[in-house]
Every structure is written in structure tokens, then in C-alpha cells.
Amino acid sequence: MNRTAHLIAVFLENKPGQTARVSKILADAGVNLCWLTIANNGTFGVMKFLVDQCDLAVTALKQQGLMVSLLPVLAVETDNRPGALLRVTDSLRAQNINLDNCSGFVAGEHALLLVEVPNIVQARATLEEQGFRLLSQDEMLRL
Asked: What is the pLDDT of residue 141?
């Protein structure tokens, strides 16, 4: 089973109405938004999100002229307790794997970390060797 999940990244001008624009495109396409983060650097920003239908979302956003990328991420399930993030990041550090971006949320008694790294194959192998459970896209969406 493929243990790589995907986030969608949309690059936008940082101005009022952009989040509403993207939200409307997804809603009109019948795509459910499951998780979201927005970051900006002043003039431009990036919205990253997890959706229930990646291909449909990418197509709908591109048809509206938006700059869209599909980002592979590792969805790492951990216990919801102090030190859980440290265990994941220490495992990556020990193999000299840089953490480009990371976000997370709690689902019941577990936490889920969405990890973006430059070498996803190496990171996947490292985390699996350390006993971490990596979720597929479908498993992550069922949380």
C-alpha cells in the first residue's frame, strides 16, 4: 500500500478574497476540505490543504488559472503525548534528513503529523524502521 499522502499547495497573491476564491472553486467542484494552513511572505502566500479528491481539486483550481502543486507528505501517526514530535524529528535528524515543513493535529488519542521532506523515500524508510505508523491518503481522511 502506498504510504505517501498528498497535500495541495496553491500559490496566490496576498490580498483580500483569495481564500474565499479558492474555497468557492473547491466547493463548486464538490471537493471537501479536510485540513488547511495558510502562510504568506508579504506579497504572496501559499495555501496548503488536504482534500478528499486530490485530482478533482487540482483540475478545478488549474482550470481557474491558479498555480497548483501536489505535494507528497508523510502522514505520521504518533501518540498524543509530550515528546511525540521529538521522537519523529530525532529519527529524521539522526539520518540527516531536513524537515522542510511540518504541521499536525490531534485525532482522538493519536496525533497526526504531516511531514514534508526533500527525500521522502529515505524519510519513509527511516520512520518505518523506527516503528512509526505511516498512513495512506485514504487512512488519513478516515480519521
From this structure: 77
Domains of the chain: 5-71 (3.30.2130.10), 73-141 (3.30.2130.10)
- Residue 61 neighbours by CB under 8 Å, 6+ apart: 8, 10, 22, 25, 26, 68
**Amino acid at position 89, single letter:** T
- Is residue 115 predicted with pLDDT exceeding 90? yes
Map grid coordinates 511572505 to a residue.
41
Alpha carbon distances (Å) from 14 to 26, 38, 39, 41: 19, 10, 9, 8
* pTM score of the predicted model: 0.85
Locus of grid cell 488549474: 62
Give the position of cell 519513509. 124
For residue 32, what is the DSSP state?
Answer: P
Distance in angstroms (rounded) separating the CA atoms of residues 119 and 24: 34
One-letter amino acid at 125 equals: A
The cell for 80 is 498524543
Instruction: End-to-end CA distance of the chain: give it in Å, rounded.
Output: 18
